[in-house]
């Protein structure tokens, strides 16, 4: 499962202040820690800063790429932000987060994905929002898959996001997501799957405990990727899962992380 570090988001405490002061050292500290905790890509999101979003994204992208050769994900509801920032990306393939089944979003972002050979996170909702029941969420799936075909985007470059909602809102939200994930895998095995993992624990105490367990469940369920704010506990879980699933030769990364104090006792 691919891990996309998502702590560089203005909804996270401290990121607004970092942007206001253009604190490069803090930006690099956040980025380095996400990478050390197992992130393979880093997502950047300044969506709450409407007036300065594009310049904020440009600053983050340029500074991160001066120091780390890491693929970046541009997370924005604003197509113009993607148009301005995607050309700046230098390492790996870009990813657009996110397309939806809304006509205006598809028409604005799918051509950009084609132009820049970008991968796409596609949320399963349209103008009416996202439904609660798995079968209702899947009703917009043909709109997204048809658009991918029409714009020449390979299915393997589309990451379908069925939407994780907090357990604090509805204790069934975890099981609803897993049921939807299974249906996606059965109906569209050629597409990938993704979600915002930390949403599951929003509003709950000891959130990283729930996140750790959910991460393990998603790994077992065959999820392709997750967006996750990697804290110490979730970072340790990523390291342990990599080891347990045979992706850590001679336990080298696990032991390195232990010596660096990145694991938990």
Q: Main attributes?
A:
alpha/beta, TIM Barrel, globular, 265 residues, eight-stranded parallel sheet, 8 strands
> How much of the polypeptide forms β-strand, as a percent range?
5-15%
Main pleated sheet: 8 strands, parallel
Q: Count up the domains.
A: 1
How would you spell out the order of helices and strands?
A: EHHEHEHEHEHHEHEHEHH
Average pLDDT level = 96
Helix content: 40-55%
Class by helix and strand content?
alpha/beta
- Please identify the top-level CATH class: Alpha Beta
Provide the gyration radius in Å: 18 Å
| Strands, count | 8
Short description:
The protein is an alpha/beta fold.
Write the layout of secondary structure elements.
Elements: E1 2-9, H1 15-21, H2 24-36, E2 41-45, H3 53-67, E3 72-75, H4 79-85, E4 95-99, H5 103-115, E5 119-123, H6 134-137, H7 141-151, E6 158-161, H8 173-187, E7 192-194, H9 207-221, E8 225-228, H10 232-244, H11 252-259
Parallel strand pairs: 1-2, 1-8, 2-3, 3-4, 4-5, 5-6, 6-7
Helix pairs in contact: 2-3, 3-4, 5-7, 9-10
